[in-house]
Design goal:
Layout lengths: L2 H12 L5 H15 L4 H31 L5 H5 L9 H9 L4 E4 L7 E5 L2 E5 L7 E2 L1 E2 L7 E7 L3 E9 L2 E5 L5 E6 L5 E6 L5 E6 L3 E6 L2 E7 L14 E2 H9 L7 H38 L6 H38 L1 H9 L2 E2 L19 E4 L7 E5 L2 E5 L7 E2 L11 E7 L2 E6 L5 E4 L5 E4 L13 E2 L15 H5 L6 E5 L2 E6 L2 E5 L5 E6 L10 H10 L8 H25 L3
Parallel strand pairs: 5-9, 24-28
Antiparallel strand pairs: 1-2, 2-3, 3-4, 6-7, 7-8, 8-9, 10-11, 11-12, 12-13, 14-15, 16-17, 17-18, 18-19, 20-21, 21-22, 22-23, 25-26, 26-27, 27-28
Helix pairs in contact: 1-8, 3-7, 3-11, 3-12, 6-8, 7-8, 8-12
Amino acid sequence: MSSIDQILRRVVRRERDVTPAEAAQGERRAQRRRSGSAPLYRWAFTIHKWAGLIGAGWLAILGLTGFFLNNDGWKSLQQGTAPHALVTQELEQNAARNVARYLQIDPDNASFRVAAGPRGLWRTTDAGAIWAPTRFEDGAHPQIFAVEPDPALGWGRLFIGSDNGVYVSTDRGETAHIAGLAGERVTALAAGAAQTEMLGVLGKSRVIRFDADMPGKAETLDLSPLPEEARPEDVRLHRFLRSLHFGRGLFDAPSSRLVNEAGGLAMFVLAMTGLTYWGFGKWWRMQAKAGVRGMSPEAKRSTTAWLYRTHAATIGVICSPILLYLAFTGVVIDHDREFGGWLRGVQMPKALLTPAFKLTSWEERIDSLIGYPGASGAFSVGNIFGMFTTADGGKSWAREEDGKGRPVNGINRMRRVGDRVVVISGNGAPALIRGDNFDFHEVTLAPPEGMGGGAHHMEAGKRSEAEGAAPRSAAQFSGGGSPSDVSAYEGGLLWRMGAKLVVTDLDGAPKKMLDATQPSEPGVPIFMWLRSIHTGTLFWKEWRWVNDVFATLALFLVLSGLVRWWRQKWM
């Protein structure tokens, strides 16, 4: 007798004898099953079976990879690397081009630079020809989220925000030691009002203030919620759908992420239990035809009932709304090129927005921050919903607008360069600069006429000219539409855009374009590898069409599964 048979026999023996009432109830259930020959039920059964058999394998992969991608802050995903045999040459090249996300340059000597990101921190003393990793105290290798020079000493002391507190470097990035807030995720840093004051953000949720000489003694500011008039009146449909799919669009950020994680794991478990349910039935029928005595009838019934209740009556019913919106928004996001323009033009009315867009809490809603020299208690925070400024340490807030009276939206990063406030947006949106007149204007990071393929320079010191090429935008050069960082450079600004660097004046007028060099870090991060699997670009650059098919199968599976459950209930 098999082990599973023995286990399930013991379970069956422990069950009490069936009463007449229970027998009658069982007969009624059987009658409902027999009456399930109605066309709708038969079609639901057929669709569910074949959609599951066709799509279960890939849907399990989508669910599992989606769960991990929803936790992009995990250090193991960003710094661990995928097996070399399982990555393509194109993916390796892409990883090599994106080792660092952020770039800062010493304004007094442009040869000194630091590059940073979740994979670490590097410095160069020759404008990028050779990069060397920063040596952290005790051999640490933290994720880096921010690099900010000291308000008074400049590059004589660099503050480094990491997943393990604030590090300080006094030798332009060659070495760094922990200075305070050990164990905290310091996701943003900025110079404060005074020459000795620094501001920071912990976990994208709390704003802190500390003395530059004593980073370990930080004061957490008490931030009031945004007033009703400062909250978003409407949100673009494009932003709304992306926020839903990426785990930021239902409730507060932690709850929304938890819901999407449940959806990803549910997709994986449903695929596995569905295949097991079908496979056991198939195996038992084959055993019966071959005359092999397998599990007892009681054990088979118990196994089937447990699988059904787990698959349909519990996980399937509870998670069906999550799976529906994940599948639908996945298709829409896959076709951003086709639908993106239209979706950006459609506004979601305030009455239809989910609690995530009410901004009643700052929990994981502070992506960036800047201070204002000489203005005690004044600072601005930015996130995907806009830029919000306080003059009293966070007790009251006002929403920033551009020169045309429109709210400033979609902020990933902000920096002060002299009197300028530079705002970097995401999803291909243009960057913004607020100048002396306190009005924001858009920056078109395209090289001037004749500069597109012309006098662009190699950062490594090799410079060449190629005359006669048609001008192109920085987005066409870099493969992306938005910069990831900006730094002071040669009296103007230098913008990092993927494989290119764009040099502008302080108001954003393009001057020239440079080829960026990246620190050398072998391997493809596990996060990047999982993302290429999830999107299918690891296999084919147009895999989105294949994902569309499986997303459609997922929709059919959820709907047909609910029909089947409605007739069968608990089993």
